[in-house]
Amino acid sequence: MNRTPTLLAAISLTLMAGACAPIVATQGFQVIDQKPEDIVVGTDTRETVLTKLGSPSISSTFEPENVWYYLTQSTARYTYNRPKVTQRTVTEITFNEATGAVSNVRTLGLDDGEKIAMNQRETPTRGRSLTILEQLLGNVGRGQLPRTEDDVPGQQRRD
Predict the structure, then answer these.
(1) Mean per-residue pLDDT for 135-143?
(2) Per-residue pLDDT for 158 more than 80?
(3) Is a pLDDT exceeding 70 seen at residue 153?
(4) Is-above-0.70 flag for pTM?
(5) Bridging pattern class, strands 58-59 and 23-28
(6) DSSP code, position 113
(7) Between the CA of residue 59 and those of 42, 77, 130, what are the distances in Å?
(8) What's 94's DSSP letter?
(9) What is the CA radius of gyration of the chain?
(10) Class of residue 117 by CB neighbours under 10 A (exposed 0-12, middle 13-18, buried 19+)
(11) Which of 44-58, 116-130, 135-149 has the lowest average pLDDT?
């Protein structure tokens, strides 16, 4: 009995199924020993958070010493499609300004984010728009030739 067509069909189905597997990538904060959920409010300080989690991904713009953010994001990409964010975690750690102890730990997920509609309009600029030929040939004839032998760059004057 000839098993070659059956074997080829099985191999091709296996390869096609393997092509459907996503390429998963993780960016941002990587948990090594301690998780952000292990931070204890009122007990931990800036120093203990740095020891447990390391430096933050981002600190607050307006209160950089009092609010730290640890960001993690996972994306999945199928063959030729754009990567799609599958998981996002933002851990916000707020410190008490006076004592330096942790006053709040908040974890936000992908569902907590808001989608912002980007405006595709362009801001007009002053002046006129140039065509490709005007851009390529725009400086032709604008330069000045040296008037005398003394004006030639790269040569020394002889007295």
Answers:
(1) 75
(2) no
(3) no
(4) no
(5) unpaired
(6) S
(7) 20, 30, 44
(8) E
(9) 31
(10) exposed
(11) 135-149
Q: State the DSSP code for 8.
A: H
Instruction: In whole angstroms, give the CA distance from residue 15 to residue 86.
Output: 25
Here the tokens at position 148 are: 């005398």
Q: Are 26 and 71 in contact (CB under 8 A)?
A: no
Which amino acid is present at 55?
S
CA distances from 120 to 60, 117, 123, 126, 157 (A): 29, 9, 10, 19, 58
Long-range pairs for 82-89: beta carbons < 8 A, 24 or more residues apart? 83/25, 85/110, 86/24, 86/110, 88/113
Percent of the chain surpassing pLDDT 70: 84
pLDDT band at 149 (very low <50, low <70, confident <90, very high): low
Cα–Cα distance for residue pair 149/42, rounded to 1 Å: 81
36: amino acid identity, one letter: P
66 φ, ψ to 5°?
-105, -20
Running DSSP on this structure, what letter comes out for residue 149?
G
